[in-house]
Amino acid sequence: MPSTPPDLLPETIRALRHRLATTQVSARAPSLVAAIVRGGRPVWLEGWGSVDSSTPGGEVQYRIGSITKTFVTLLVLRLRDEGRLALTDPLDAHLPGTSVGDATIASLLSHTAGLAAEPPGPWWERSPGSLRPEVADVLRDDPLVHPPGRRFHYSNPGFALLGALVAKLRGRPWTEALQSEVLDPLGMSRTGPQPSAPHASGWAVHPWADVLLPEPIQDYGPMGAAGELWSTATDLARFAAFLLAGDERVLRAESLDEMRGPAAAPEVGSWQSNYGLGTQLLHRGDRLLSGHTGSVPGFLATVWVSRDDDLGAVVLANTTAGLAVGGFTADLLDLVAEREPRIPAPWQPLPHIDRAVLELAGPWYWGPAPFVLRPLADGWLELGPVSGGDRGSRLRPTGDGAWIGQNGYFAGEPLTLHHDDTGAVTHLDLGTFVFTRRPYDPAAVIPGGITDPGWLTREGADDRAASSTPPAAP
């Protein structure tokens, strides 16, 4: 098996180039740069159009807008993992003095705090940050437009508050924390709050004529955590690789998974998209993408990853409108996934396994419903129904002989083993769901008990029905 993924097939590269070129022309974007990531590295990166009379490459900076929010989320979750805060904490516990101190940190990360979408005053993305010099200036006099926790409502001021929270707890600007805690470990040397050459200029394209208007480049002040960063296709390819495979130097794997979990119900009519913690989610058929889009005057950007395909896609453009950048980026990812589906690694036996865990492998029954329990290479367990259904779950060991569900119906529910006097496992208890080695095994403790003589034929069932009487009403 090769240690690195092979380059894409020539016909796939040509299809990507054709899609990039036709989109740049139809959207009339001054320039586009796109990249595909697989196996931890870019397997395609190409630009179309021009920046300073040259075709842009992977080192040209573009402003990435709201992709900034995902970076800020990493900083907040790092603080949580260090024990400095809890996601259930109210903002006031760590950043007192705002008018929304009751909002939880989780609700700000997931846009469910009910805050207004934009700060007061003129269009903040085209205005100098000096108009809002203090964090309190990003909130309206009536900052809530919805009851907290009731619905998803995208809020840029919410992330301004989170940037201020990071700065308060770290004792330095959030951008400096980002540099040392995230960008340096990932090798993202061309990402930061200020552009440096070579970088693209931001343009608005006239809707009915092929002429350009320069967009102002502003320092956003306290609103910077909502969309200030600049980056390159090469750096965002590194970021996509991190979102796919993780890096414990930056964030625990469990916390990275947490970012991708839906945090609120989507809008009615928009069931294909959702939001986690600082992370957008998008369904494309059977494929689940996670990442973020970005849009500020003069620039559009997207990073999408599909973990099941081990694929990431990055797009950067220097135009204000006219390009559905999120859909276009997803199209590029789909194109590669469908033409060059992921080739699985060779099957290998488990490197090691506890003998007691091996004895748990195989069929278990929830009442009469058959399930299969499989030990995994990472020490986790996987429990799933034989005939399909929604009661399966991956289970993480807790270190004390028990496990805890990580997804699906049993997410967060504990799995404990019950033993008889000889030490043999009689049954599993997963959030009060009892699993036995035989359907309704009489040797286990079954809620409601097992009536003698156990399983009945039709004749026995008829006799049982005729002789039984329902319990008296209380």
Automatic annotation (TrEMBL):
Region entry Disordered, spans: 451-474
DUF7586 domain sequence ranges: 354-437
Domain Beta-lactamase-related intervals: 26-334
Species whose genome carries this gene: Paractinoplanes aksuensis
Name by which UniProt lists this protein: Beta-lactamase family protein
Gene3D superfamilies xrefs: DD-peptidase/beta-lactamase superfamily
Record-linked InterPro entries: AmpC-like, Beta-lactam-related, Beta-lactam/transpept-like, DUF7586
Entry-linked PANTHER family: D-ALANYL-D-ALANINE CARBOXYPEPTIDASE, D-ALANYL-D-ALANINE-CARBOXYPEPTIDASE/ENDOPEPTIDASE AMPH
